[in-house]
Specification:
β4, α6 and β5 form a beta-alpha-beta unit. By secondary structure, the protein is an alpha+beta fold. The structure holds calcium ion (2 copies).
């Protein structure tokens, strides 16, 4: 006659998203007033964004195409950045992560990125060794992506080197192609 006392083990399913909740809470307060109906699971802090996601997902396939996301300017302008696994669609997680980030740092980070892009472009144009070479510059959170065509490896290295030296640049990703 042993009475089973196994009710103490209830520490399952801890959510890691708690940290985001506080910082995004303010930004979401407005949206959440429109979205009070849904709430089956314990993802309280993600509720408003996942509801936004559902609204955008017009064909309900649980992912957002670039077309579907067009109504959301935050995301449509930075689709490639939000699409972490680069499959051309945004999953719920990708959407929510990106939106949370935007809401937290839209002002500071993206203005910085624009400035960095402009500075890198200016430096590249100034360089005599890269004269006449058209290099595209994109910056996402301090990571600069260089793309376009160069004539040889020397120009490629030079462009990467110049971009790396610009203030505010965290890293340089090379997507330049050597014209053959
Ligand atoms: Ca969809
Ligand atoms: Ca994706």
């Amino acid at each position: 006659m042993n009475p089973d006392n196994k009710f103490k083990d209830s520490s399952k399913g801890k959510l890691t998203a708690g940290a985001i909740a506080t910082s995004v809470a303010l930004a979401l307060a407005v949206i959440s007033s429109q979205v009070s109906a849904i709430g089956t699971e314990d993802t309280i802090n993600q509720k408003p964004l996942s509801a936004e996601f559902k609204k955008l997902d017009t064909n309900s396939d649980k992912q957002l195409s670039q077309e579907e996301v067009a109504r959301d300017k935050d995301v449509s302008s930075y689709f490639a950045e939000a699409d972490i696994n680069q499959d051309g669609f945004l999953s719920v997680d990708e959407y929510i992560d990106f939106k949370s980030n935007v809401q937290q740092m839209r002002v500071s980070a993206y203005i910085d990125d624009t400035t960095v892009t402009a500075k890198v472009k200016a430096e590249l144009i100034k360089d005599a060794g890269l004269d006449g070479i058209d290099i595209s510059v994109e910056t996402h959170k301090g990571q600069v992506i260089l793309s376009g065509f160069v004539n040889n490896g020397e120009q490629l290295l030079r462009a990467v080197h110049i971009a790396s030296g610009v203030n505010g640049v965290q890293s340089v990703k090379n997507a330049l192609v050597i014209r053959s």
